[in-house]
Give the backbone structure.
Amino acid sequence: MTSSYPPMDNRNVQNEDIHWDQDISYGGYLSLDKLLDCQHLLTDTHDEMMFVIIHQTSELWMKLCLHEIHSAMRQIEEDQFGAAFKMLARVSRIQAQLRKSWDVLSTMTPSDYMTFRDDLGQSSGFQSFQYREIEFALGNKNKALIEVHRAKPERYERLKMVLNAPSFYDLCLKALARHGFDIPDSHLNRDWSEAYSPDEKIEHAWAAIYKDTAKHWQLYELAEKLVDLEHEFHMWRFSHMKTVERIIGYRRGTGGTSGVAFLKKALDLRFFPELWTVRTQI
């Protein structure tokens, strides 16, 4: 059988205008020396490398999520919906990528994991400050959850700032008010650190948008982008829960949570509640 790829020999290299001396190289631009030296394993077990890389790459994807979410929030404040939509679509794609990472992790069996689990001590994904910031930014506000980060002042202050600022959904409701919809003042001026409470008037506002999409096309598209984002986030949570169930069953999590039971509770959380309940009345 012959290969469809050209042979890798000197003739191919000689025919290319390759830059051997670079002002900036691929590895230098990406800081690969640092990046590839970040996998500091605690054991000599085979599967720990995969476990570390899966979680490190997840944190990189979450960093990009935050970059896109905060930028989209600024665009929504300025009624620049088109730019925000592109960013929200990107976040949904990133969430799908994060979900696929659990497929890789699920190749690890309970026996594989138990060879190094005890060496992890009390470290847990529950302690991810970036994940917590994503939840705060999207609207799942819970003051108690930042306490695990108090020992890291810079991270703690960052999370406190996001906790006390309007969420993405809060900004969307302000946009609805700017476009003439009757949004209660209780939801336009409130303590942003408190958990969000759904309101019937807000559900009616979304219903009006869905019932006349031609008139409210941008707000209709905003609603669907938010639903896409939450759907992918929900699927990511579900995949996380099922992967944990598959690997450790109903053991307690290393961070002290109840493990699968704790993750199941998170499946009931909603960032944009009226966008889900409105579907029943349309």
